[in-house]
Amino acid sequence: MGYDYALVHLQYTIPPAVALTLCYYPLSTSLGVYKILFLIAIAVISTTPWDSYLIHSQIWTYPPNAIIGPTLFRIPAEEVFFFIIQTYNTSLLYLLLSKPTFHPVYLRGQKLFNDGRRLGLRRWTGVSVIVACILAGIGMIMKSGEGLYMGLILVWAGPFVLLLWSLAYQFIIGLPLSSTFIPVVLPTLYLWIVDTLALKRGTWVIESGTKLGWHLWDGLEIEEAVFFLVTNVLIVFGLIAFDNAFAILQTFPSLFPTIPTLPSPILLVRALLLPTTSYEDERIEGLQEALGRLRAKSRSFYLASGVFQGRLRVDLVLLYSFCRVADDLVDEAGSIEEAKHWIAKLNEYLDITYGKSYVKVERKQDLISTFPPSAQASLRLLPTSHLSPTPLYDLLKGFETDLHFSSSNPFPIKDEPTLQVYGAQVAGTVAELCLELVFHHTKGSTPESLRRRIVQAGGRMGIALQYVNIARDISVDASNGRVYLPTTWLKEEGVTPEDIIKDPARSKAEILRQRLLNSAFEIYDEAKGAIEQLPAEARGPMRVAVESYVEIGRVLRQPGYKVKAGRATVPKLRRLRVAWNALSHT
Ligand SMILES: CC(C)=CCC/C(C)=C/CC/C(C)=C/CC/C(C)=C/[C@@H]1[C@@H](COP(=O)(O)OP(=O)(O)O)[C@]1(C)CC/C=C(\C)CC/C=C(\C)CCC=C(C)C
């Protein structure tokens, strides 16, 4: 009996497991835990007979003075623990690195598949390489002798890799390298180093006669290097296949009307086996467009979107896209008439959608086709069946207020109550819509009276965010001839809206920016408690959404902070820290 192998764990595998667990904990979800347990179960079940055979055939051995003693089918307990901890560590690294990835946009239906012809070529190249490895492995086993251990690795791992590649090649090829290459390479390099040390110390021994005798570097047998590489490939491909299946379930409500929080293996396989001809390419393209819009236009909500899950995440991205498109149509219109035209069209769109128009719902598509091409998908995909019409109509009323910045009434925000109404219309409504999606997509029921209180607080929070938005954009708005600071406040400081337009950097503007931020933070303090009443799975993500936007206000409140390039921004690391703290909050 000895502790050498146990020490390998204490020194090399447990410390990264602890570090990764601490990093992942705030981001953890029940689905994440389910994936890890699922993978560990498969790793133990699939590796045990193979490993047991290798030990039985004396291809590798453990000196009795290196292990504690208990075994499972001849496999030392420390080795069984190795399967578990390696799977755990590599899975956690993958889950951490792929957290921001929005998987639905990597699906490829028939049309998108044909557009990217290289996908088919790469699929079959992959199949050929894997099959060649399996055949080479069979050859080595048949010849026995020095190629035996390598042959056994290839023949054992090859079919699993082939299966996973065949099911999930779209994702394996398409996902960013941070979700494919890095979670394979980092743990593999690390385990190569650990293995070199263990082999040198004699913790485990690869017997001669059944190994090729090639070394990747001094002390690292080629078989060991290949073994750790393929096991990490298997773990990462397994997780990718899981994410591929879940993305199919998450993206197509028409094919899978309801999905459980933890989908069964049978449902996952059913999703993966669905022919790509059944995928709705239009929906995938619409989601790609919506995500691109979110990424380009809002760093705060883009970051926050990464911590929402499943269909709630999909619908929030689509809602953002609709709000952004509608706001831009009005803001970027060449004239007041054009802006009014778009607001009227958007109202007509809502009338048809919610059956308030004499125009039949079948004509909705015709109406949508009269919008600019870049706006059409966001109108088509807005999840209106989960959203009530009132906040959407109110949002459009808020956009109408922006049209009042005309020559007859150049500064419509007369006083703070008017600003509050404006904030409620353009942002309180958005909060209500987000909360409707939260209640729809989370399990457990929130009593109606509590829902009402949460929505009311959400509406207030929307106003707080809108104040932060106005405080941030004083210069940008002034350059467009707009002043959202209440005229009564300006008067108290002895300035006019025209003065702000002429010189938005003047000291009085800074005083009023701080006053507006004080109001924003008062409202924020009063409303934030309601987030804790939300269904558990939405609390952390909603905190991230709110906090990452409110942080812009905190930056603006720093003594001596000067707004550069027209807009205050939160540095990336600070944004990540805010998100982390928001998720760690208990
Ligand atoms: C995570 C995720 C993807 C969330 C999506 C949130 C969403 C749907 C945002 C829509 C934003 C938008 C374009 C609205 C149009 C009207 C508008 C311009 C509103 C202002 C947003 C500023 O966005 P941005 O900085 O990109 O805009 P400009 O470049 O200046 O044009 C607003 C400040 C409103 C944002 C308000 C919310 C998202 C509501 C937040 C409150 C909650 C979610 C409720 C919190 C819950 C409780 C219980 C307190």
Low-confidence stretches: none
Helical percentage:
55-70%
Q: Which strand order does the major sheet show?
A: 1-4
Name the bound molecules.
ligand LST6JFWI
Largest sheet: 2 strands, antiparallel
What structural category arises from helix and sheet content?
A: mainly alpha
* Helix count, DSSP H or I runs of 4 or more residues: 24
What does the radius of gyration come to? 29 Å
Let me know the number of strands. 6
Overall shape: elongated
Q: What percent of residues are in strands?
A: under 5%
The string of secondary-structure elements, in order, is HHEEEHHHHHEEEHHHHHHHHHHHHHHHHH
Query: Cα distance, first to last residue?
Result: 45 Å
Calculate the mean pLDDT score and round it. 93
Can you walk through the features of this model?
A hairpin with a 2-residue loop joins strand 5 (215-217) and strand 6. The chain has helices at 4-24, 30-56, 77-97, 110-115, 118-143, 148-174, 181-201, 222-251, 265-273, 281-297, 299-305, 310-331, 336-353, 364-368, 373-381, 389-403, 416-441, 448-472, 474-479, 487-492, 497-502, 507-527, 536-557, 572-584; strands at residues 60-61, 71-72, 75-76, 205-206, 215-217, 220-221. With 586 residues, the protein is mainly α. The chain contains 24 helices and 6 strands. The chain has a two-stranded antiparallel sheet. Strands 2-3 form a two-stranded antiparallel sheet. It binds ligand LST6JFWI. The site of the ligand CC(C)=CCC/C(C)=C/CC/C(C)=C/CC/C(C)=C/[C@@H]1[C@@H](COP(=O)(O)OP(=O)(O)O)[C@]1(C)CC/C=C(\C)CC/C=C(\C)CCC=C(C)C has 35 residues, from helix 10, helix 11, helix 12, helix 17 and helix 18. In the C-terminal section; belongs to the phytoene/squalene synthase family. In the N-terminal section; belongs to the lycopene beta-cyclase family. Pathway: Carotenoid biosynthesis; beta-carotene biosynthesis; Carotenoid biosynthesis; phytoene biosynthesis; all-trans-phytoene from geranylgeranyl diphosphate: step 1/1. Its main location: membrane. Its EC number is 2.5.1.32, 5.5.1.19.
